[in-house]
Design brief:
- With 197 residues, the chain is mostly helical.
- It has a single domain, classed as Orthogonal Bundle (Tetracycline Repressor, domain 2), CATH 1.10.357.10.
- The chain contains nine helices and no strands.
- The chain has helices at residues 5-26, 33-39, 54-73, 78-85, 88-92, 99-107, 112-137, 144-163, 169-196.
- Helix 3 runs parallel beside helix 7 and helix 7 packs across helix 8.
- The longest helix has 28 residues, at 169-196.
- The mean pLDDT is 91.
């Protein structure tokens, strides 16, 4: 029995969404195709109607996850993004959280295609932060180096916090210190810009 284009797209979207969440929770190697398809409510054989291999799925779900991160924070001031990103709720919500924080180490061991997708997504995150800094400073341009530093610091804080036991004071201290430092860096740049005018 043939399925409609709409149903095929719906199944594809369900696989991508399920994979994106499961990969963020357990890593690329922590999820098999059979389990993924069962979780998506589809048959194992149906996987190959959409993807040539698990590596193709990894690349596509990675792009989806990085786009979700961009959409989640779109419209927020850059300082509000730092408050939301460097929060315990984000740290604890791995499956719904930032793909960069959940899968950077895994992506480093993937084929070049996945690395390229990951790099493009990280670049979009950097540009979004850069644009946010420019809007916060009411200027035409942001500071790419500062945006890269903020993203690296924020992702690193989430990764390190997740590596600590849940009840460890250090888990929260990492988030708190990074949040304060990112806020100060953005605010100090705004002050410097106002002083230069």
């Amino acid at each position: 029995m043939r399925i409609t284009k709409e149903k095929k797209q719906e199944n594809y979207d369900r696989i991508i969404s399920t994979a994106s969440e499961l990969f963020r929770e357990r890593g690329f190697d922590g999820v098999g195709v059979a389990e993924l398809m069962e979780r998506a409510g589809l048959t194992h054989g149906g996987f190959y109607n959409h993807f040539r291999s698990k590596e193709d799925l990894i690349a596509e779900s990675t792009e989806n996850g990085l786009n979700e991160t961009l959409q989640r924070y779109a419209g927020y001031d850059v300082l509000a993004v730092m408050e939301l990103y460097l929060a315990r709720e984000h740290r604890d919500g791995r499956g719904q959280g930032c793909t960069a924080a959940a899968l950077s180490c895994d992506a480093a061991r993937q084929p070049e295609e996945t690395k390229a997708v990951f790099a493009a997504g990280v670049d979009r995150l950097v540009r979004a932060i850069e644009d946010g800094i420019a809007r916060h400073h009411v200027s035409d341009t942001g500071d790419r180096a500062q945006a890269i530093t903020i993203l690296a610091q924020a992702v690193g804080a989430i990764v390190l916090s997740r590596a600590c036991p849940d009840d460890s004071p250090l888990a929260d201290e990492l988030l708190d210190a990074c949040r304060a430092d990112c806020r100060d860096a953005i605010e100090n740049r705004a002050r410097d810009n106002r002083a230069a005018v």
